[in-house]
Amino acid sequence: MKFQTPFSLAAVVGLANAHTIFTQLTSGGTQYGVGVGIRDPSYDGVLDPSHLGPVQAYLKKVGDATTDVGYGAGWFKVSEAGLINAATSEWATTDLIANLGVQNIPIPACIASGQYLLRAELIALHAASTTGGAQFYMECAQINISGGTGAKSPATVSIPGTYSATDPGILIDIYYPAVTNYTIPGPAVFTC
Q1: Which residue among 31, 36, 48, 134 has its CA within the 20 to 30 Å range from the CA of 168?
Q2: Calpha distance 93→99 (Å, rounded)
Q3: CA dist 83 to 4, 43, 103, 125, Å?
């Protein structure tokens, strides 16, 4: 299968304090150039270490990845990570920074071959103690998956629409009281 399990996405991560950009794909040991198949981001920056929160990835099967608008129905989650270690306040974004922006995203072998949008998403929770405080950072890549068996069709959600501003994983004070359990927002991860 092209874009086999796992595949990496590299987000620009550096010393400056800002946000994040998904810029590069690696699949099957091949690293594609910066921006290849990735829609131009609308912001610039790197991941600020204070932006703690979950990291997720979704796929959407499309007829033409170069022209699909990238929103609406058809999305299914293929990867998620949230609170890694409550004792040390280690989050998925902490690991992303430590891993120099590389995130492995499994592509389910049981989905149909074809063109997909891959949505890499971070939710920064440093200001999420009030409604509207969570910050969403996402980018989409246009990918072609081949060798999929098509044995299963995942349940899908609409983006926007899958989250609510009051979901427990979006409206949360991550500082006080100390978070010991975290509910990652959105649907369950699709598995074969």
Answers
A1: 48
A2: 10
A3: 26, 26, 15, 11
